[in-house]
Amino acid sequence: MELLISIMIAVMTACGVYLMLRSRTFPVIVGLTLFTYAVNLFIFVMGRLTSGAPPVIGTAEQYADPLPQALVLTAIVISFAMTAFVLVLALRARAELGNDHVDGKQTGESQEDRV
Predict the structure, then answer these.
(1) Structure confidence by residue, pLDDT tens digits, 62-90
(2) 39: pLDDT strictly greater than 60
(3) What is the CA radius of gyration of the chain?
(4) How would you class 113 by CB atoms within 10 Å of its CB: exposed for 0-12, middle for 13-18, buried for 19 or more?
(5) Residue partners of 49: CB distance under 8 A and separation at least 6
(6) What is the model's pLDDT at position 1?
(7) How far apart are CA 41 and CA 13, in angstroms?
(8) Whole-prediction pTM value?
(9) How far apart are CA 63 and CA 85, in angstroms?
(10) Residue 110 to residues 10, 58, 90, 101, 106: CA-CA distances in angstroms?
(11) Of 37, 42, 64, 69, which sits with the fewest C-beta atoms within 10 Å of its C-beta?
(12) Contacts made by residues 41-49, CB under 8 angstroms, sequence distance 24+
């Protein structure tokens, strides 16, 4: 199970980095979201993978570490807010610049052509 989770985290990280290196804003946002999910899953796995164990210390012999779960819940809320902000920023840039390239230039357009 740990090997499967590791492979999933690696694939999500690779896809996220690949999409973040694209020149369009929507793939960058999707890549950032995938990368965030990979980091959240990595933090969650750091608390050991146990099934059926309560997250409360002292009630059973085995327990799931509640600290990574609390960190991931906080990270999910922060990443959702960050994704919403980046999405609004991308929509605003699209409206202002007329294209969705991350640097604001069309393909083959130089800085002198824009001025």
Answers:
(1) 777 788 888 999 999 999 999 999 999 98
(2) yes
(3) 20
(4) exposed
(5) 1, 2, 5
(6) 81
(7) 11
(8) 0.75
(9) 37
(10) 37, 65, 21, 13, 8
(11) 69
(12) 41/5, 41/8, 41/9, 41/12, 42/9, 43/68, 43/71, 43/72, 43/75, 44/68, 44/69, 44/72, 45/2, 45/5, 45/9, 49/1, 49/2, 49/5
What SS3 state is found at 25?
A: helix
As given in the structure block, the two tokens for residue 71 are 């960190």
For tokens 């069309």, what's the residue? Answer: 106
Helix, coil or strand: residue 101 = strand
Token duo for residue 95: 């409206």
Predicted confidence at residue 68, as pLDDT, reads 85
AA identity, residue 39: V
With cut-offs at 50, 70 and 90, classify the pLDDT of residue 111: low
